[in-house]
Amino acid sequence: MDDANMCxxxxxxxxxxxxxxxxxxxxxxxxxxxxxPFFCYQIFDFALNTLxxxxxxxxxxxxxxxxRQLPPNFPYRDDxxxxxxxxxxxxxxxxxxxxxxxxxxxxxxxxxxxRYINGRNSSDVLVYVTSxxxxxxxxxxxxxxxxxxxxxxxxxxxSA
Length: 160
Known about the structure:
By secondary structure, the chain is mostly helical. The chain has one domain (1-130). Helix content is 67%, strand content 5%. The protein contains six helices and two strands, in the order αααααββα. The protein has helices spanning 3-29, 36-58, 61-69, 77-82, 85-121, 141-145; strands at residues 126-129, 135-138. The protein has a two-stranded antiparallel sheet. A hairpin with a 5-residue loop joins strand 1 and strand 2. The longest helix is centred in the middle third of the chain and has 37 residues, at 85-121. The radius of gyration is 27 Å and the shape is elongated. The termini are far apart. It is a multi-pass membrane protein. The chain crosses the membrane at residues 7-28, 34-59, 80-102. Its main location: membrane.
């Protein structure tokens, strides 16, 4: 690896550390805007992995060509080359599908975190969580008390 590639790799690594730190800070301090760069990175990464899966599906011979370009001392290179190409494509597509499913789950986790923080900062709807982990949405105070008919106050307290 030459110096230019090393500098690019270091810059990308530092940028990824910064984006992950921003997401962690945003989740900790409940600032939704700090989570957006990490969410965008996840979407970009998901799109690139989807393109890899499409490439494997459209050009199945590219896998064999890639394996031939590996160095001769690469572990299990000859064993992989001996596998039926159709079976190898199916195995790789299965593996990529599992990875894409996991990445989709992580994207939904970050999106739910973002929505939770945005919902928590808005005063339109109050959220009340009961002890058995069910969520009840309470109406705004004005809607609950301003329904037109004023209720009578309770009778005065009389001590026994």
